[in-house]
Amino acid sequence: MSNIITITDFSAPELDIYGRLSESQLLHYHEPDTGIFIAESPKVVERALDAGYEPISLLVETKHIEGEARQIIARCGEIPVYTAEFDVLTKLTGFKLTRGVLCALRRRKLPDVRSICQGASRIAVLEKAMNPTNVGAIFRSAAALNIDAVLLTAGSSNPLYRRASRVSMGTVFQIPWTFFDEQDEAWPGNGMNVLKEMGFKTAAMALRDDSISIADPVLKSVEKLAVVLGTEGDGLDAETMDDCDYIVRIPMKAGVDSLNVAAASAVAFWELRRQDV
Length: 277
Hints:
Elements: E1 3-6, H1 16-19, H2 23-27, E2 36-40, H3 42-50, E3 55-61, H4 70-75, E4 80-84, H5 86-93, E5 101-106, H6 113-117, E6 122-126, H7 132-144, E7 149-152, H8 162-167, E8 177-179, H9 189-197, E9 201-205, E10 212-213, H10 217-220, E11 225-229, H11 238-243, E12 246-249, H12 261-271
Parallel strand pairs: 1-4, 3-4, 6-7, 6-11, 7-8, 9-11, 9-12, 10-12
Antiparallel strand pairs: 2-5, 3-5
C-alpha cells in the first residue's frame, strides 16, 4: 500500500536529499557504503527501477499521484511518497520538476573495467568530461548507436547526477559503465594498458596534424575499438593522444573547426561501427 505524505514542514530532514544536498554530498551520503542519487522524470525513474536500483523515497507533484507517477508508485511498495502542489515543490527543490517526479535511489558498487569490457567490440572513453549535460547526451548516443560500454576517467561528471541521467533519457541505466580506478587503472597509463591487454585499439578524437579522417576504412576493420573523447574546450590531454593508436578527426567545412563533444560522439559512434555490423 502506498505511503503518501503531504509536505507541511520544509525543514524536515528527510527532504534534504531533494533540495538541500549537493550531488557530491549525495554521492557520499551513506559512507562507508555507497551513496544515493536522484532520478528525475517518470521515464528515467522507470529505467532506473528496471535496472534494479533500490528506491528510497519519491517526491511527486500532487496531480501526478494518479497520473504520470501512478505506475511508479505502485512499483515502489511502501516507501515514502512526499507530495505537494507544483509551486510548493519548486520552492523546495529550487527548480521545476520534469513531469513532476523525483525519486531517490541507492547507488551500487561500480564494476571494474575488465568486467564491463568483456565481450565488447566498441566502447567509449570519456576523459575529464565535466559537463553533465554532455555526459548524458553521449550516453544517449552510445545506447542508440551500438556502443557496448562507457568508461569515464577521474574528473568526469558522474552519469547518475540528476541532469546527466535526465538528458540521457535514462540510458545511463541501460548501457554498462564505470570509472577507471584511480590507482590500479589510473588513466591514461594503467588504464590504457588494461584496454590494450584486452585487445582494444584506441582512437583519440582530436584535431592534430597527424590525424586521419574518421572515414578511413582501417578504423571500421578494427575488431575492438575504444573511441576516446575529451572535455569540452581543452580536448584530450597530450599524453593520452600520444598513447592512442590513432588520432581521428571529423572533417569540417565552412570554417567550423570542431563540434560539441556530444555531437562529435554521435558522429563517431555511427561512423566507427564495425564493418560487419
